[in-house]
Amino acid sequence: MLELSNIGKHYDVAGRRVSALSAIDLTLERGSFTAIVGRSGCGKTTLLRIMAGLGSPDTGEIRHDGAAPRIGVVFQEARLMPWLDVSANIAFGLRNRLDHRSIEERVSAILEVTGLAGFRRAMPLQLSGGMAQRVALARALVMEPDLLLMDEPFAALDAFTRRSMQNELVSLWQARRPTIVFVTHDVEEAVMLGETVIELSAGRIVGRKAIDIAYPRDPTGADEALCRRAILARLLSPAEPD
């Protein structure tokens, strides 16, 4: 549904030109789950922002299969509006788009799907970090996006909450089948989630690995460990395009 061809992006920093992305070629099939992994500063967020239309590439082009997709974005921070309760935060993007009854129906449905029905009237300050991120995910899903872009959304969560959110995300993806691009610096998380893992280093794609392991995946499993080792070996070697 989305094809990126020869994408490049540069910034001018202290009088010198810095390459953030170079020669990125990437095709996202409809309903796929792609994880992009790499160390901090490798260009992951820049690439995601370009996919979201929040930035423009200096070179290359983005092509859509048919109409431009509806895009939802989930950031590392939940970014909830503190003066609105959970229901109102989720409904915010639907205002002036749907009538009141339609909004209530859609919000109620997504509250059930994301396990938030009992927190409809809770305020953001009353939520744990994991619950706040669940609200942020619900806010994106309620817009019924074709393409869901996620920028390290679980990075600040404790290990137990992170694992729970990973499993919930996979379940939601399997039920609804949006196209997901999930950015992370955690190789284990990339292997747990992605059908395909794109390895990014110094602004270039240095590897692509299909993860042919059934869901739900086991972080202690032998097949998962082999995938992690292969990805780490590529990311820790000198950056060379795939």
UniProtKB/TrEMBL annotation:
InterPro entries attached to this UniProt entry: AAA+_ATPase (IPR003593), ABC_transporter-like_ATP-bd (IPR003439), ABC_transporter-like_CS (IPR017871), ABC_transporter_ATP-bind (IPR050166), P-loop_NTPase (IPR027417)
Keywords, alphabetical: ATP-binding, Nucleotide-binding, Transport
Annotated ABC transporter domain residues: 2-227
Pfam families assigned to the protein according to its UniProt record, in alphabetical order: ABC_tran (PF00005)
GO molecular function list: ATP binding
PANTHER family (alphabetical): ALIPHATIC SULFONATES IMPORT ATP-BINDING PROTEIN SSUB 2, TAURINE IMPORT ATP-BINDING PROTEIN-RELATED
This protein's record includes keyword Transport: yes
Keyword field contains Plastid: no
Similarity field: Belongs to the ABC transporter superfamily.
Record-given protein name: ABC transporter ATP-binding protein
